[in-house]
Design goal:
Elements: E1 4-13, E2 22-27, E3 32-39, H1 42-65, H2 70-88, E4 99-100, E5 102-108, E6 111-117, E7 121-126, E8 129-132, H3 139-145, H4 151-155, E9 178-181, E10 188-192, H5 194-197, H6 202-211, H7 215-228, E11 235-244
Antiparallel strand pairs: 1-11, 2-3, 3-4, 3-5, 5-6, 6-9, 7-8, 7-10, 10-11
Helix pairs in contact: 1-2
Length: 245
């Protein structure tokens, strides 16, 4: 992508939680970016998200070095992390599922490959358009997609925070969808945990992308906005800026 200079910013805040179970990776050498939002309580959540940010980059690097296609490498990395977290959670207390969401983006050739499991999200901001590149794997979202619930009903559903896909899910069989896109100069890519996305609108993203040239400054400001608007969760995001040379 010689026509671009890629700049990246990332930040995470504990917010109103006693600890931060979110983890993120900014690997500018390989243009690999990853956000993981741990769940299952302090010890379990931190362990799961920590395993995700350790395993996924290593598997991706090894498989891409072996000339595997990017989409297959991404699926394999997420599947391996899932198996490891399931195995690690075998002895946990009954009723406390150790797991983590994961959303990642990696550059291969002239494309960016994006994938997610759980309800952490990826957004592409291009001019005045915002596209959510990932699907929320919550029961409420699945019911909205099949027409059982309206969007408004899904927003207020008791199932809106219940995940059916995540890393650490022993019942997961079909893995992650991988979505490639070809970036353009001026694009912004946002990867974020739900502690941020539940409090940020598409309008916020369009305005912020225009107002903040520095991705690090914008990442920090997005977290401030989410906390100001009442987020009680850990809040984490990565902003990837594709700037013209």
């Amino acid at each position: 992508m010689a026509e671009f200079v890629i700049h990246v910013g990332g930040s995470s805040a504990r917010g109103h939680r006693p600890n931060n179970e979110d983890r993120f990776v900014v690997d500018s050498g390989h243009n690999l970016f990853l956000v993981a939002d741990g769940m299952g309580g302090q010890e379990f959540g931190e362990r799961a998200s920590g395993m995700a940010v350790e395993i996924i980059p290593k598997v991706l690097h090894d498989r891409l070095a072996a000339r595997e296609s990017a989409d297959e490498a991404v699926r394999a990395a997420l599947a391996e992390a899932n198996r490891a977290i399931v195995d690690a959670g075998q002895g946990q207390t009954a009723g406390r599922r150790m797991g983590t969401t994961a959303v990642l983006a990696i550059q291969q050739d002239k494309q960016i490959f994006v994938a997610g499991l759980g309800d952490s999200r990826a957004y592409l901001i291009r001019g005045d358009r915002v596209d959510q590149l990932t699907v929320d794997h919550t029961v409420a979202d699945a019911l909205e997609r099949n027409g059982t619930l309206t969007r408004e009903q899904a927003r207020h559903s008791p199932w809106k925070n219940v995940l059916y896909k995540f890393l650490g899910c022993a019942e997961m069989t079909d893995g992650a969808d991988v979505r490639p896109f070809t970036p353009r100069a001026g694009d912004r890519l946002l990867l974020a945990s739900d502690g941020l996305t539940n409090f940020i609108s598409p309008e916020d993203l369009v305005v912020g992308a225009s107002n903040h040239r520095s991705p690090q400054e914008w990442a920090e400001r997005l977290i401030e906005i989410a906390l100001e608007r009442g987020s009680k969760d850990n809040v984490t995001c990565i902003v990837v800026a594709f700037d013209a040379e």
